[in-house]
Design brief:
With 67 residues, the protein is mainly α. It has two domains: 36 residues; 29 residues. The chain contains three helices and no strands. α1 crosses α2. The mean pLDDT is 90.
């Protein structure tokens, strides 16, 4: 694992972050406005959950031997 893998990961991140903006910018803008109404604790919990799931996936792939 090296720079190539890191760049692949960053490429996928940018791809998935950019798709909603490209496909439906109006809907993305509406969702962004609604996020302001969500309490900070809920957003923090969602961020923690997403991070935890990401760590489990990475652990499974890299250390669990998923091929």
């Amino acid at each position: 694992m090296g720079w190539r893998d890191l760049l692949i990961g960053i490429g996928f991140l940018l791809l998935f972050e950019g798709l909603p903006l490209f496909a439906a910018p109006g809907a993305y803008r509406r969702v962004a406005r609604q996020i302001d109404a969500i309490p900070e604790a809920v957003l923090r919990g969602a961020g923690f959950l997403a991070s935890a799931i990401g760590l489990v996936v990475l652990y499974t792939v890299f250390l669990g031997g998923v091929d």
